[in-house]
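Recap for those who missed Tuesday's class. We walked through two folding examples back to back. For each one, the amino acid string is listed first and its predicted structure tokens come directly after. Nothing is annotated here on purpose, so try labeling regions yourself before you check the end of the notes.
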Amino acid sequence: MTSDLGDGAPRSFAFGTFVLVPERQLLLDNEVPVRIGGRGLDILTALVEQPGELVSKAQLLARVWPDTVVEEDNLKVNMAALRRALGEKPGAPQFIATVVGRGYRFVAPVRSVGRLAPSVEAGVAPVRRHNLPTAVTSIFGRAEEIEAIRRELSESRLVSIVGAGGIGKTTVALAVAEHAVGALADGVWLVDLGLHRDPAWVPNAIATAIGAALNSSDTLSELIDSLADRELLLVLDNCEHVIHGAAICIARILANTSRVKILATSREPLRVKGERIRRLSGLSAPPPSPSLSAAEALTFPAVQLFVDRATNSFEPFSLNDADAPTVAEICRRLDGLALSIEFAATRIEAFGVGGLLQQLDDRFRLLVGRRVGPERHRTLLATLDWSYSLLSSEAALLRAVSVFAGMFDVAGAAAVSNVTPSEAADALAQLAAKSLLATDLDADGLTYRLQETTRSYCLERLRLSAEDQAVRRRHAAYVHAVLERATSEWAERSASEWAFEYARVLDDLRAALAWAGQDPTNHSLRITLTVAGLLLWNHFSLTEECRVHVSRAVDDLELAGLTGTALEMKLKLWLGGSTMLTRGFDSQALDTIRRALSIAIDTNDTDYRLRCLSMIGIYEVWTGEHERGLRTLEKFAGVAAENDPSALPESEVHSGMAELFLGRLLQARQRLEPLQQRDLRYFKGSYGVRYFADTIVLLDSVLAQVQWLTGLPDTAVRTVVGAIERARPTRHHLSLNNALSYACAIFYWSGQQEQCARHVAMLEEHVIRHGLVARRPVALFYGAALACTHGNPGFDALGRLQQAIEEFRNINHLARMPYYLSVVADALAQRGRLGDAEATIREALVIARAHGEGWCMPELLRVQARVLAAENRTAEAERVLLESLAFAQRIAARSWQLRSANDLAKLWSAASRADDARAMLRPIFAEFNEGFATRDLVIAKELLTSLGTG
């Protein structure tokens, strides 16, 4: 069959609601991309190219695995996954029919189609609303439970599915979750708590699943803040491993959110207030009866499941009347446990029905002396023992892959089991066919995972074997290799693609680090793993988690003999940076970064030398050492100009910030405005963040304040709003945090109180959610400053201002401190506390002169004049206002100049000097070409009107 599309158009095959575009490796269902692996797409393409014709197994194997010799089980597993993706049910082929022993035939009508939908042509990816695995369509005997749980979730916010291991709790939970997809604004998210053994990591596991960033040490509170406004369903699977931590986390989430629902699975109830418990029993099986017919047996779900799983990859197993009583007995002996029935059914080909029952009876008799615990747990253990004992060479691989925290692929299995990828692929296919592995599809092909019960069993087998430490070491090495590959691809792939590909490595990284930390001989391995994970933690904004792991690795450097190496350099830089973000600008953080710089210089590592200089310069500027910071940034520029000119915009933006604080406003504008005309994106536009924050966002944020100060208030607002709009979709939290903090000041200075209040609220929420403590007092300060303006009698605005000042000092965030103190002084004066006001403004002036913080000096002098005028020291107030005007003119701070001119005009008008007031104010007002709706220009216009034309 050929396509009738025009030259150059990709072939497209349509069948049912699907469209297949082979050249784009794309399958669409109603224009929505279907998650399907490369092997599945190859099989599907081979079939739809020849609709109605038999395609033999040999043909498919040669096409899909052209350079590899694989077993037929590989084809069966991939075919089963493909059918699930197409929504087919066993025994009822809608698209693909099995020709037993020969091959497969595509039986649905296929047609060529024209151009794809515009969104697909443009490559627009759908918004992810869930992370559920590929749906399993064949569920038996659980329809009533699934519907009941759906009803309970509509009435209650917490439902727990409780039952023995292997009974089918996860299957039921996923079926309920599938029904909820699309019904909740923020989606449905599966969290497998069976991957964790430490209850403290429960909030981190949930945050990773929903894509939230946890940066503070109080991860649970931060998680709750991120969930506050979301409407979603959390499916917390396998809670029994961390039951106490899960219960605390769930209780806090339910108490502090209103639209989050939770569906939990556990072997025991959570005992949380409001919990509704749904206990699952085994699947019902027929009672003993020698005359039981196949038709009667198939009315019971346990037998239905057995027959379904005995149908090997859609090749039918037919239950006859003679075998029906035996199959029913097998299901009874297995207590209706779904997992045990699946294990047994996959061995029907090897033993036959009668032989299978004999095998189970023999195994149960052998184990009778060691049985402990609930009956169904013993039954599952017996079945697992039996299934495991029937394995040959695959047993070693099954033990090895149990070290993976979640999904893994053929390459991972080959690495941890120390076999070739071809051998691993064959073994995985056989294990999946025996139901010992679950399969799923991702963009690159089939992935595998162990059900938690099977994984726990295999981990115990691994622990008792002589291979345990070797397998775990290979696992750690494999994780390290994957992270190295992730680092090399980070600059070449889009952020969303990169995140989707590597997010699942987080749990394996945590597991490998936990293992490495248990043995003092693994110091070097833990250090290299930590360094490899730096980019992953940074990308997902897991700043606090990064700080914790880096701190531990730094403690191991001397024992590992790695001091003075590139590993120490990288760890020290990231430790200093993450500490600045989550703890503040303490001197220890600076010393840590300086140590990294020393190593970078010794080892001639230009990239890290630039990173360290950038971080040190930022530290110095934000702690009020503006001149020193500017000199450090000039060093950065010198190194960049000689070795890496692409980094120069980074130094230009931060140097412009230092010039802003120093009051060199025109120099700052001349430095920053040309950068707006350049493309500052790094890495082919995939990422804007190279060092500390998005350079373009920071450029616009800093420039906006320079623009406001130099008399362009409307332009400043447009610039900072543009910075926020750029920062939002990047999901880089520090960049958005920067833009919001600059915006609060601009709206406050402009007198736009509603906009200021809105951005203060956004900043406050963002700071709490992401644990960026350096910005917390900024939100607190401007919120309190607004309250002072409103004069709310029930709100201690002055106390909040003073609290913000104290927090700034506690974290050593001293940039802008003189300005902040001037606002406090003004508030004190308004409340008649003139002595305190005078002392505060004097302190502000002393700090400003000591730090060279000239940008706000005209405003400090203006506030000092207000205090003097309130003390009836009019002549001194006039002198100080004139000094303020002269200073503002000298640094081109036109907006501060207007504000001081307004105060001086009022002072002179009260002294019957209207002509002098008008002559002084009018030319300053005339210099403005915009911003006439802002507070100071409105005041100036009203003053000029009241002063008359003269």
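Example two. Treat it independently of the first, because the proteins are unrelated.
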Amino acid sequence: MIYSLICAKKEQWIRSDQCAIKGLLKSIRKNGQLRDAQIEAIETYLFLKLAGENKPLAQLFAEGFFFDGLDLSNLPLTVKARNMLENNIAARSLFQFSRLKVNGNTLLPELEKTILEDYESIDYQDVFRRIFYNINYSDYLFSLPMGAGKTFLIASFIYLDLYFALQEPDNLLFAHNFLVLVPSGLKSSIAPSLRDIEHFDPSWVLPEPAGSEIKRIIRFEVLDQPKSAQKSNRARNPNAQKVNALASQPNPMGLIFLVNAEKVILEKLELDQQLELIETDDRQARAANELRYLLGKLPNLCIHIDEVHHATNDDIKLRKVVSRWNEGGAVTSVFGYSGTPYLSSPEAIKINGDVEIRFKHITNTVYYYPLALAIRRFLKKPDIKSASGLKPLEIIRRGVGEFYKTYEKKVYGDKTAAKLAIYCGSIERLEEEVYPFLRDEMKISEADILKYHKGNARYKISKEAELEFASLDTPLSKKRVVLLVQVGKEGWNCRSLTGVILAQKGDSPMNMVLQTTCRCLRQVDKDKNETALIWLNDENVKTLDKQLREEQHTSVQEINALNKGEASNWIPRHSRAEYLGLPKIDFYQLRINYETKVITQAVRAKENLKELFANLDDYKTAALVKSGEVTLSAEIEFENIAPVLSLAGGFARFDLWLAQIAKESFNTLSFAVLQEQTTLLKRIFEKITVRQNDSLFFNELYDHDSIRSAIRLCHAARRDLTVKEDVIPEKAELLLAEKLSAVSVHEKLYPPDSDVKIILGSDQKGWDGERAIQEQRRMEEEVRARFADTFGSLIPYLPEPSSAVCMKEHTLHYLPYDFRQSGFEKQFLETCLQLAEFKNRKLEIYYNGERGLTEFVIQCFEKKNDFWKRLGEYTPDFLILQRQDNKPYKVLIVETKGEGFAVKFAPKKKFMEGDFLRLNAERFGYSRFDFIFLRDDDKPESNIAKLSEKIQEFFSTQSET
């Protein structure tokens, strides 16, 4: 839901000047060791950490962090509602949140209506808190499909956190220690794969030698020892003993603990008793669960929860535990991971008692990578087969037969053999039906078959079988068919698994058919077109299709099309820059540099502190004591006044007071500097404290926060900010051809595929647009004449080529243009190409608006008084250029904007029409650039008239003096 919004803001941040880690991100991509899913998730993580300051999602939304300015002028609002939305950031943010589009539909239409009709009764910040589970710490969920590399993603996050933490040890945004939690039901399948964190190569995400230095300080521990008693102490709990030994070191950093979730909650108490003990004081909590207590004391702790959808119910109260830890200041952030970020049943939130908004997905999902895209790019491509009307054993017969026919000799690059998993609903069915059928009826060698389950009173599993299961994904394993009961459905990391059979209802829980069938999709050999085989009975295939549609927005039919090479919904794109001789654009860029200059190096702290001491009465609170009488504000009602029995507040100690002043300065004022003024500071301290029963307490009549702030100000140096303006020449490529990638087919691609083929073919033959059209018509007439006697009028006429073909020498520096963000842009280009001025004046028009493909990006500023405010980067939509001596001579910058973005764009528009045009005209000696702004809410004929007039005015002459 929100991940697309976050992705858009992330991309905007990465392109902006505020992003200080562009080099780091570029290095990660250049290394080429991580998949695009992992890199995009890392970008989202860094965006929320750095730009979002690691704030809870509810707070970010309430502050309007994810939303741009909303133009309220054209919305049907009452005056009061408009004023409220203009002045209440949280309300405006919730209003925009409700209007988000999901699959073309408004996200929460009932909420939008309620805000407009009953806006005064809504607590907007509370609504956001409830949407995001009433959590007051950062809790972000990353959704990646099975096989996308969650383990290495977790490792990447850990190394990046430590990288920044070592540079800024006191910055609470970055974690020092880490806890990786595995849901208790999946500890046997997930925990082994997560051990790969210990062997992660940090050079994939960090420059050297920083990565290797961090690897040396990391200590990875798996807390898998059984505890000896429920109310254990350190001596009797080996896990707690291990944590205590490591955490008791001075300033522990780089500790990574892997533990199943049940070890940080109380296992055998009723829910009410659990919550009661979680909320008790430290001494009781320590007695109840020593391990949980010690983990909660780790400083700067980041928690990673794998398969987090298992931790959303009442069986595992992780959120309650984490909230308790957070109250103690231990938790830096929480990251969850899930391939299926959907809830088993929708969660409902009531607003004003009447309106109910429902969410089927986990709302704090900040990144989502779809399964279909993963199959297209790196997972095995499955062939999903359904068997309607066949008995379960016959489905197994056909599935096993096809597996041996297709994959019997399949050995992957790591020397592992392809394997088939057959899931059974019960141990009795496996032992008494399926296994005998394979052995006796199908004559499958017993050496090929592995039976694995947890065993029951009748059927036991040997230690040898456990070892065989653990070694399945190694070259040592010769097993080809694996029979499973209640294991291997989720988290099982066997890359050489190539097929799955679910032959009857109950072989997999109904809510886990998708996870079970996906077990065979993990990639083994990189850059190889790997396939997999899935056989399902009719019921299971219907369940799979339903879950794919609900959770992944795809279907069995679409997944099968990927395997058969029918993925026609993606097409390649082609550069025409070389054919057009596309030149670079010379222009001048304004560059503003800010320099901070310290005016006073030796601060007159002593004189400032003397002045503060003399005026301490100014820091007294509202109730002022004068001659034994209390003077009160007129607004205070007497029934609310309680008699003051004591002036003593919190316990006071001089050295701790100094330490607090230094700590609150965020390292701008040290304890040692404060000690230089001990005499004066002691006089201030003595005046704002009172002695009672031989102990010293802070005097409650003083505003102590303000006094500490004033003391820090006394030590502050005066600084001056100077602004340096530079005009920098730049040469911009209009197309970074190496960044062109395939694009999904949709109606806003331009031109259509038929025209793309004509243009590319005629480019190869050196034909211009008119020649291309003539040749197409000639060939069409030849075909018509040749078969006229046979087919007559049945021969269809080919569609007329668009103006794109005719004007191909004047536009389309790559094919096709992607206008999915704006149909207005597509319509504008089509209309422009039909203008007579383009041919008559030999003009060219190029779409420049797809960010990342162009270097023609302008830094915009706004001047206020004597200072420049940076507005960020501006990527123009279109460039209309005229050449002279085959070089750009004049360039008309065209911006097309929807009405909702016009207001926000106004400052940049002002800069473009003013300073940008002026400084470039001064440097080139003539009006090299001009600018026109068109809105999609204006009539099309009006926009074209404006453009035509601007073209005639700006391109009227070919040279100027």
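Answers for example two:
Residues 1-137+339-368 form one domain.
The CA atoms of residues 882 and 888 lie 6 Å apart.
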